UniProtKB/TrEMBL annotation:
<protein>
    <submittedName>
        <fullName>Transcriptional regulator, TetR family</fullName>
    </submittedName>
</protein>
<dbReference type="GO" id="GO:0000976">
    <property type="term" value="F:transcription cis-regulatory region binding"/>
</dbReference>
<dbReference type="InterPro" id="IPR001647">
    <property type="entry name" value="HTH_TetR"/>
</dbReference>
<keyword id="KW-0805">Transcription regulation</keyword>
<dbReference type="GO" id="GO:0003700">
    <property type="term" value="F:DNA-binding transcription factor activity"/>
</dbReference>
<dbReference type="InterPro" id="IPR011075">
    <property type="entry name" value="TetR_C"/>
</dbReference>
<dbReference type="InterPro" id="IPR036271">
    <property type="entry name" value="Tet_transcr_reg_TetR-rel_C_sf"/>
</dbReference>
<keyword id="KW-0238">DNA-binding</keyword>
<keyword id="KW-0804">Transcription</keyword>
<feature type="DNA-binding region" description="H-T-H motif">
    <location>
        <begin position="40"/>
        <end position="59"/>
    </location>
</feature>
<dbReference type="InterPro" id="IPR009057">
    <property type="entry name" value="Homeodomain-like_sf"/>
</dbReference>
<dbReference type="Pfam" id="PF00440">
    <property type="entry name" value="TetR_N"/>
</dbReference>
<feature type="domain" description="HTH tetR-type">
    <location>
        <begin position="17"/>
        <end position="77"/>
    </location>
</feature>
<dbReference type="InterPro" id="IPR050109">
    <property type="entry name" value="HTH-type_TetR-like_transc_reg"/>
</dbReference>
<dbReference type="Pfam" id="PF16859">
    <property type="entry name" value="TetR_C_11"/>
</dbReference>
Length: 208
């Protein structure tokens, strides 16, 4: 007998796909409006105009629903910018992070999803997948820069991209200071300076 897929992991098409899209959009609205603690499956079903049984059968828990939303966001995220220079690419990445986090709806949504990840294992795993997907997408700007000779050989592209967004998320979650385009450029430039200095390059590759 075949194993039954875990709630929220099936990706069927047709009407079921439309129901999923509607429920995920509604879940995002609830998270942005009131946070993870307000993500009640019965209320999501009511607002989405979907049968409660369908929502409980498909997702089962608020954590599963939040995780599915994160996976959907990762699948639909935009491709990286290619400006032709590593400085331009990293600044574009940082500006995208700032624009997302300062957007009235998206900023609240990400805060809610981060909160969900702190108290729910499924949401935490999905948040890790989301950022791994985004870092992998933008890592190409670093590998391109290495190929062009702008950065040392062996530079760890994923660590550079993570270093761009890290201070921006820190500011969002810990300092409460409003993020600006200047903050984006500072974060990108600091990561670039470290990358140029070989902070994320292996010694063996640097001396080849």
């Amino acid at each position: 007998m075949a194993d039954t897929p875990a709630p929220g992991t099936v990706r069927p098409g047709g009407r079921t796909a439309r129901v999923r899209e509607t429920v995920l959009q509604t879940a995002a609205d609830v998270l942005a409006e009131a946070g993870f603690e307000a993500l009640d499956l019965a209320e999501v079903a009511r607002r989405a105009g979907v049968g409660r049984t369908t929502v409980y059968r498909r997702w089962g828990t608020p954590g599963t629903l939040a995780a599915d939303l994160l996976d959907d966001m990762a699948a639909q995220s935009l491709p990286r910018t290619d400006t032709g220079s590593v400085e331009g690419d990293l600044r574009a990445n940082a500006r995208l992070v700032v624009e997302t986090l300062t957007d009235p709806r998206q900023g609240r949504l990400f805060k809610a999803l981060i909160a969900a990840a702190l108290c729910n294992g499924q949401a935490a795993e999905a948040l890790h997948r989301f950022y791994a997907t985004r870092i992998e997408e933008w890592a190409g700007c670093v590998t391109d820069a290495v190929r062009r000779g702008e950065l040392p050989a062996g530079t760890d592209a994923r660590r550079v991209i993570a270093a761009v967004s890290a201070p921006l998320y820190y500011a969002l979650l810990n300092t409460g200071a409003p993020l600006t385009e200047a903050d984006a450029h500072d974060a990108a430039d600091a990561a670039l300076a470290a990358a140029r200095a070989g902070v994320w390059a292996t010694a063996a590759d640097q001396h080849r």
